[in-house]
Amino acid sequence: MGPSFGNSTFQSKITESADIVVGICYMVFGIFSLCGNSTLLYVSYKKKNFLKPAEYFIINLAISDLGMTLTLYPLAVTSSLSHSWLYGKQICLFYAFCGVLFGICSLSTLTLLSTVCCLKICFPAYGNRFRREHGQILIACAWTYAGVFACSPLAHWGEYGAEPYGTACCIDWRSTNENAVAMSYTVVLFVFCFILPCGVIVTSYSLILVTVKESRKAVEQHISGPTRMTNAQTITVKLSVAVCIGFFAAWSPYAIIAMWAAFGSIDKIPPLAFAVPAVFAKSSTLYNPVIYLLLKPSFRNTIAKDFTFFHQFCISCFCVKAPQNYRSTLNMSLRTFKGRNESSCNSLPIVEECSFFPREKHSDTFKCFQSYPKCCQERLSGMECPPQETVSLESNLQAKVANKKSVKVVVQGEKSTESDTLEITLEAVPVHHTFADL
């Protein structure tokens, strides 16, 4: 018995405003999931030579979450905002297949991760033998395991169909009440893809907690106890527990509603009661990148280094263009000064009084010129000089600085028929040169 798809099947069963809210939630989750998982994969690639075997499961989880993001979110967002499923039967089967494949793969990956952590901490004689190749084999097994359950409805063991709220697709829970074959698939799915993985994860982390507790007691009593966890193992376990809690918090409401629909009366369940848990289930793609990128020190440091490099790169690009316009900007800022007293205009100490000119109390010549244009603009704007043809000043200054450089400063004023201009030229010359040579 194949799945039945009618026109009414793909019409939304919830209100249009609720569909809009669901679509917006999917959109926000999709953006954050895409950015977070992509960043996590980038950081993993940057430190690929330093990855621990257990961290390969985190990478696989990011790949699975990213696959779900790319295949499910665009279809779910557009359909929710349109208040109906837009893509027909075949795309509905593809949507349901991807949802089951990536969801089971993520859960299987978390189960394997908890088992590896338990072996390393509770049974170090076996856990220390775990290598990268073992992790790769287990990851391949996780994808195979998920593929078997995802392909079964396509082979007519179980069925795919529209969700009860109408704008997404998954396992056809209604057929479970009508078809014994579909019922058997649903039972096996719940046992081997939810109850059993949950039991393994809870058991693994419970053993870890017991081992840690016994280790602390042994340390307090100054006796030889179980092997203590290293800092790296402690961080890995804490992050793994956090990811598992987030995953189960996201998927448990949907699992409960699905079991109620499969083994109870689906007609008594409001469509909105399916839509809200489905939104929470999709949010599971966010927790892994958020937890690892924010809480794992090595991943966080890699992001900080790359962000600092990017920030410096942007600054350097800006600073390359800035000196090109510096001279013209400086001339414009110092333009048009006139005075009435010729003696005050020819008085050179006035310019030398500028607090940003090099003095003996400054050890860094370049520091003295940091705010030079502003200072001289304030000084020269207060001068009262009668018009004259040319005023020339050459101040020969030499200071020993940390980078073995001296500075030649030339200040020239020239009057034209329209406006007066002041030109300041800064030249860096080797310290062994004298200004007589210049």
In terms of topology, how is this protein built?
Layout: H1 16-46, H2 55-82, H3 88-122, H4 124-127, H5 132-151, E1 160-162, E2 169-171, H6 173-176, H7 180-220, H8 231-263, H9 271-282, H10 284-295, H11 297-321, H12 326-333, H13 342-345, H14 349-352, H15 365-368, H16 372-381, E3 390-396, E4 405-415, E5 420-430
Antiparallel strand pairs: 1-2, 3-4, 4-5
GO biological process, one term: phototransduction
Transmembrane segments: 20-43, 55-73, 93-123, 135-155, 182-208, 239-262, 274-295
Subcellular location: Membrane
How would you characterize the overall build of this protein?
With 438 residues, this protein is mostly helical. It has two domains: 8-295, Rhodopsin 7-helix transmembrane proteins (Rhopdopsin 7-helix transmembrane proteins); 334-430, no CATH class. Helix content is 63%, strand content 8%. The chain has 16 helices and five strands. It has a three-stranded antiparallel β-sheet. A hairpin with a 4-residue loop joins strand 4 (405-415) and strand 5 (420-430). Helix 1 packs parallel to helix 9 (271-282) and helix 10 packs across helix 11. Residues 320-363, 365-369, 374-411, 413-421 and 433-438 have low confidence and may be disordered.
Residues in β-strands, percent: 5-15%
Look at the structure and name the CATH superfamily of the largest domain. Rhodopsin 7-helix transmembrane proteins
Strand order of the largest sheet: 3-4-5
CATH-defined architecture of the largest domain: Up-down Bundle
Mean pLDDT across the residues is 75
Q: Which percent range fits the helix content? A: 55-70%
Order of helices and strands: HHHHHEEHHHHHHHHHHHEEE
What does the overall shape look like?
A: globular
Q: Distance N terminus to C terminus?
A: 97 Å
Gyration radius (Cα, Å) is 36 Å
Mind summarizing the main beta sheet?
3 strands, antiparallel
Note poorly predicted spans.
Answer: 320-363, 365-369, 374-411, 413-421, 433-438
GO cellular component, one term: membrane
Subcellular location: Membrane
Organism: Calidris pygmaea
Domain G-protein coupled receptors family 1 profile: 36-292
